[in-house]
Automatic annotation (TrEMBL), chains A, B, C, D:
This is GTP pyrophosphokinase family protein. Pathway: Purine metabolism; ppGpp biosynthesis; ppGpp from GTP: step 1/2. It comes from Lentibacillus halophilus. Residues 42-162 form the RelA/SpoT domain. CDD domains: NT_Rel-Spo_like. Pfam families: RelA_SpoT.
Length: 201, 201, 201, 201
């Protein structure tokens, strides 16, 4: 299987989405507005992980397109409120269609994981015509991302079976991350209020 | 005037078009096919040049959007035939609309300039909604690009009034570039024929 | 003053240091080792900030080179221990000299700020020969960076005079960030121990 | 063999050299001077080509470091004279050592190939300390590069055995490229003379 050729449209979707979201951040900067985007990362799922997943779910190799997260983009926000600003921005875009939304912010996972996931359908122009690909956009705060990155490493280390002692530590860390976001959100409101008072003068 | 904010959609169009065309080149490579794209460059017209042009044409500053070449992308091809492959690829894309085509390949300019120009309308998602911007795509061979780059420098040096002695030298250079393209085109055909014979066996 | 030309060696130092540190991260990945680098950012101090600082410190404009942070690079680490791994790596490099170190990890600032700063002397090849420039490398964990980014915005908003009510909130946030790092550090040790046990078998 | 890890220092050398040479070009621009650099490209030799070469030359796999062109950087210049400006700039740099120079400009190859090659020793900081790697810098004009790119494709197609009919066509193309460079060089001189006259007034 020529994986480079098969994955090219997904890699292309990731590149285009990254450029598009980075452009959004720059526009906020140029207009001296608070940007709800701190940074953007993206990746194509490694072939090894794709094979593990297709095997696990009994998906034939030519059904790889069903996997919703071969193309993945992550938007990291300064504040919790910013997550919903990004969600609304994505919902209003004309260059993609939303296939599914999962709100792990309001409904956090048992592990402590918090993030907003949107599966989108995104058209990519290829040398064989337009191809519609699925891509997953994950939206989280810096604190959520920090926690999730570490949990991901541990999950990888322990092959999904994190010992319960470590699991409960991870939970405590998740709570600390949550508290950090709460404190920061409160500060954000004060900043905005300070500005509102200033402009009323 | 906040030029960074005004030019942001044009800069965005250039970035997106570059990423999209680079993706096309990669796809040819991944499928082991001859790529009609050698390299891609892009630029936003400098503010100084925009001001010179609006003044020259008596365009008010808020009519800057009429200028078709604020966003500019250049596709450089190995062979002359490749130019038309690119033109067809652009015509078939669903993510842009063609506003105008100028074929300075078949009808070269008096100066010796050769290139294929396409003005496109390209939708950019901004923080204020979708904005349609004009962009100019220039398509040329390496030899045409080499010549045009040098002519551009001389034009800039002499403020558009290249002395006739140098002009005639430039013409001779243009002819040499043209001959180079002709020779290379002939070789391209032989290469393709050699491959056709090989595959018939 | 031609600021682009004056700042070119600093911009160059930032670009080179970023490429060099990104290379270090890749090497850890290629050898399947834990990378002490999560990500790297860099920036040249904006001209406006340079002018404010030279004015404040009564530095003449041609003494701009004395400022140690015109070129700035930030290394963000997953864990606290990783900070010292980076410090040692920088100390052992042959392509730069350390001018000064400030350990705001062991000795955090009153504001709650934590970070390790290294001022380096870095040689840049210019079109006028080698030029030695000063650059500041800031090394912090993700949690420290998250907190510092927000504090920086507030400082900017309040022009260095953050109201005490918000200041005490920031302090609480700094403590939460600190606790997060502590929890994560503990987990890191368990991960390493788990691996050590595994390898003893 | 973990090729990614083995080739990492070479990839690093290419990235650093590209950033360094791009910086040189920017400095000429910022100071409004003619830049002898039009563009820079770089690549690490593909593993397949490395294996073919080690086999051909009977080099054991751990002797891969002897190959002088695993890391390759190409500097493309507008004019022939610019090539020697680049050669002098490289000779004067303190961050590398020259191991060998080959002047295929003055002494073109039988095939018609023209280019200036410099083999350098370049120190790369790795996670195991400093490693000295060999890298090849190729310096050519746009016309030489155009020709060489096409000859390379044909050589690849015909596995080094280009039929003599095509070979003689390539030769004619090489002559046309040479003539183009000659014409352009003459124009360059006139431009410089025009400027000298202007400044004498």
């Amino acid at each position: 299987m020529n994986w480079e050729a098969v994955l090219a449209p997904y890699a292309q979707a990731v590149e285009e989405l990254k450029i598009k979201l980075k452009g959004i951040r720059k526009q906020y900067e140029y207009e001296s507005k608070h940007s709800p985007i701190e940074f953007i990362t993206g990746r194509v799922k490694p072939v090894k992980s794709i094979l593990e997943k297709t095997e696990l779910r009994n998906i034939p190799l030519d059904g790889v397109e069903e996997l919703p997260d071969i193309a993945g983009v992550r938007v990291v926000c300064p504040f919790v409120d910013d997550i919903y600003a990004i969600v609304n921005m994505i919902r209003s875009r004309k260059d993609l269609t939303i296939a599914e939304e999962k709100d792990y912010i309001t409904h956090k996972k048992a592990s402590g994981y918090r993030s907003y996931h949107i599966i989108i359908e995104y058209p990519v122009e290829t040398i064989h015509g337009v191809k519609m690909v699925l891509a997953e956009v994950q939206i989280r705060t810096l604190a959520m991302n920090f926690w999730a990155t570490n949990e991901h490493s541990l999950n990888y280390k322990y092959k999904g079976q994190i010992p319960s002692a470590i699991q409960s530590r991870l939970q405590r860390a998740a709570e600390a991350a949550f508290r950090l976001d709460e404190e920061m959100s409160a500060i954000k409101n004060e900043v905005l209020e300070a500005k509102r008072i200033f402009h009323r003068k």
